[in-house]
Amino acid sequence: MRAVLCRNPGDLEIVQYPVPERKPGEALVKIRRVGVCGTDMHIYQGNQPYFTYPRVMGHELSGEIVEADKGSALKPGDPVYIVPYLHCGHCIACRAGKTNCCTSLKVLGVHIDGGMCEYLSLPETHLFKAEGITLDEAAMVEFLAIGAHAVGRVRVTRGAKALVVGAGPIGVGVAIFAGLNGAEVTVLDGREDRLAFASRLDGVQHTVRLGEHDVERMKANTAGEFYDFVFDCTGSPKAMERGFGFVAHGGTYVLVSIVQGMISFSDPEFHKRETTLLSSRNATLTDFATVMAAMREGQVPTRAILTHSAPLWEAAARMPEWIRPEAGTVKAVLAL
Fold this sequence. Notes:
- This protein is α/β, with parallel strands linked by helices.
- It folds into 2 domains: 2-139 and 301-335, Alpha-Beta Complex (Quinone Oxidoreductase, Chain A, domain 1); 147-279, Rossmann fold, CATH 3.40.50.720.
- Helices cover 28% and strands 29% of the residues.
- It is built from 12 helices and 18 strands.
- Helix 4 packs across helix 10 (285-296).
């Protein structure tokens, strides 16, 4: 089978691998769609934490079942979405149901080879029928589940003020599910095209352009009290540190993005506000189910989110294009 290998930063090539051998408890999947996310862009650019080269990228995946165990609920031809977080099932996190932060977690396309290829053999426990949605939509469930998980880390009450910092795909997912939970959502970003897109999302009441007067704008939108919930989705240490100042007294700060190195904050300000600080990593099966339900109800504007597509075998040519800000990429999907 063919696969797209990232041999080094900026270096993608098509290679040949054997079709994986299916083991008991696994299903052989024909990959049909691969979403391209910020992690893939970071891998391509050479600035992704916890990563070694070479690697077959791709963890936002949908496909069709080719073969499964006798008696399996999965049948050949079934369309599926793939949960790419392979967890051990017995560590302290898994025992608590927090499989998203398993102590030995292996994420397809990051820690082990992923789905930019023709076939994968995966545990049936990580394959779910994509009934009622398209293959394109099924490839978008994972990144939206990250947004749903971040919102699920806090108890968003109706009318609460939420700030989403960073309007890339993950920020879009957070904004969608914060809005669905009843929050009054503000999105902060430095790019006009991303703010314009965010402004069209149901649930987003305000957008603020990063810059000289952004603090004044946010004060005006919140009567000077700032936000009950702040979600950082930037991948920028500077932005993550600055975001502490946007949290209301008694509020919560959720770090969805991850960066290399250290971040710092003012301890007196942190204590004065009695800020709750949370990280948010990946997603659980419950979050995937939340996204599926929202998609089936038409609550996720998937047609608008999917802005770019191309055949998988054109990845080497398309990735440099899609990274450029002027491309206006929200979500790109590679098709097989």
